[in-house]
Amino acid sequence: MEESRPNRKIIHVDMDAFYASVEQMDNPNLRGKPLAVGGGETRGVVSAASYEARKFGVRSAMSGYLAKKNCPELIFVRPRFERYKEISNKIRKIFYDYTDLVEPLSLDEAYLDVTQNKKGNPSATLIAQEIRKRIFDEVGLTASAGISVNKFVAKIASDYNKPNGQKTVNPDEVIPFLEVLPIRKFYGVGKVTTEKMYQLGIFTGLDLKSKPIDFLEKHFGKSGKFYYNVVRGIHNSEVKSEHVAKSVAAEHTFNENLSSEIFMLEKLEIIASQLEKRLKKYQIAGKTVTLKIKYSDFTLQTRSKTLPYFISDKALLFETTKELLFQERMKNSVRLLGISLNNLNTEVKKTVVVQLKFDF
Hints:
By secondary structure, the protein is α+β, with helices and mostly antiparallel strands. Helix content is 36%, strand content 22%. The two termini are 14 Å apart.
């Protein structure tokens, strides 16, 4: 690792099957059973699956129908997001006992920069162990963690010893760790990119490292430089304690497909009301309204309009969405509608952090 490169102590904490684990914690009758949190087997989608269900190939984003087919004994539970937020807030309070540099990625995972920490503990590994123990003792759930010199490696490491485990990749271990790593396990390399890399003879980090930057940029565009850097342990993104929303959205999947624009307008008016509540709660306004349409054949379409002024009230949201709805004929019956607002009036705030070097 080059001396000029920031050598931070980053922990990535990832809760184990979070939604499903909360449901099993709250309802002892569900413990040890294959469980899916989601809309059900007819039209729903799995939001989360317990480890018992994962043994049968049940995964998040899978249709409820396919999940039930893979696991006939699967139990579906409706999501309770308010409860998940409540538990997530308790977990984050534990994080803040150690550092103010906490960057939540979702309700169930976050980055922590503990280079300098409130406990004065020089070992990020021991801090991660302590945090995981406190989450179990105080909340009742298990968590996994990855510890390394940057966010990229820490994220990969947190998945290494799941569930209820952790892995530390020390500074001198980063390059060897990445070289032997299967390319499909690189964070940010999805299924499509993995297949493309296979076609180019890239199966491991070492294969990726052997490709020059111009080759990677030719085949992967702007992402080429990212791949070139991360496989060399270069990822200087700081843990950002304040995230600024880029968009705010509300959407709804219907029990029955909609084929009439009249019915769609009724639903969109309700969705516009929900979006208005979220915007008012966070005092956010925006200029670009986007209508999201998912058809019965699962194809997705978006239509957008940018206004010359900021809006946040239901009337203007609905009126603009109505205009977008009638912009062109529907291609098919509709199973999902959503409205999002971006080009927001939020200001980007940057936190300047002085990073020091310590032993892991």
